[in-house]
Design a protein that fits this description.
The complex is a heterodimer. By secondary structure, chain A is mainly β. In chain A, 0% of the residues lie in helices and 49% in strands. Chain A is built from no helices and eleven strands. In chain A, the strands form two sheets. In chain A, strands 2, 4, 5, 6, 9, 10 and 11 form a seven-stranded mixed β-sheet that branches. A four-stranded antiparallel β-sheet of chain A has the order 1-3-8-7, with no helix packed on it. The radius of gyration of chain A is 13 Å and the shape is globular. In chain B, a hairpin with a 4-residue loop joins β8 and β9. In chain B, 0% of the residues lie in helices and 52% in strands. In chain B, strands 2, 5, 6, 10, 11 and 12 form a six-stranded mixed β-sheet that branches. By secondary structure, chain B is mostly beta strands. The termini of chain B are far apart. The chains are: A mainly beta, B mainly beta. Chains A and B meet through β5 and β9 of A and β6, β10 and β11 of B.
């Protein structure tokens, strides 16, 4: 049981490049989410999903796309990277609809946009 | 919108002593959930403790306990018998019951436990 896994752990992009951050969980959780963590700030919700085929925006969705074709996977896409997207990105999942139960977090991806 | 404030960017404590981390929040909701998460240098986020606003009894998990003051909108974390492994960033978080996907985090408190 690997829990929540994220790849890659580190990534450097140039402005305007695109990439996908991968997230997978093997706990059969319905709820998955993406957060970004910036210095001096707490985690902020980017997008979330309450099940396969259902996604919605969080607090800071601009510049990011998501899809949920399976229960296990929830990739985050940066279509045209900007320096403001330099951050640490966390994926999380939980067993019930909504986030009021314990969320299990992945190890994070540190992204630098030059 | 809900906000969560952690007024102590950094704290330190001697091993085996007790430390209290502060958290206040702003909401007009009556029903919600509060959390403390720990983030050690490994970056992994770990749930420490959770409190449901409709429960008056303060939550406790081994050496970790909270002081939940609903009227004051305060949710402090007390760590007893501090251990070196408690060194980490600690985040307070809030979820309103009506939209329990809208989790808000404080900016965090960096706790260092000294030997």
């Amino acid at each position: 049981n690997a829990g929540v896994t994220q790849t890659p752990k580190f990534q450097v992009l140039k402005t305007g490049q695109s990439m996908t951050l991968q997230c997978a969980q093997d706990m059969n959780h319905e709820y998955m989410s993406w957060y970004r963590q910036d210095p001096g700030m707490g985690l902020r919700l980017i997008h979330y999903s309450v099940g396969a085929g259902i996604t919605d925006q969080g607090e800071v969705p601009n510049g990011y796309n998501v899809s949920r074709s399976t229960t296990e996977d929830f990739p985050l896409r940066l279509l045209s990277a900007a320096p403001s997207q330099t951050s640490v990105y966390f994926c999380a999942s939980s067993s019930l609809i909504g986030a009021a139960n314990e969320q299990f977090f992945g190890p994070g991806t540190r992204l630098t946009v030059l | 919108a809900q906000t969560v404030t952690q007024s102590q960017p950094e704290m330190s404590v001697q091993e085996a002593e007790t430390v209290t981390l502060s958290c206040t929040y702003d909401t007009s909701e009556n029903n919600y959930y509060l959390f403390w998460y720990k983030q050690p240098p490994s970056r992994q986020m770990i749930l420490v403790i959770r409190q449901e606003a409709y429960k008056q009894q303060n939550a406790t998990e081994n050496r970790f306990s909270v002081n939940f003051q609903k009227a004051a909108k305060s949710f402090s974390l007390k760590i007893s018998d501090s251990q070196l492994g408690d060194t980490a960033m600690y985040f307070c978080a809030f979820i309103p019951e009506y939209n329990n996907n809208d989790m808000r985090f404080g900016a965090g408190t960096r706790l260092t436990v000294k030997p």
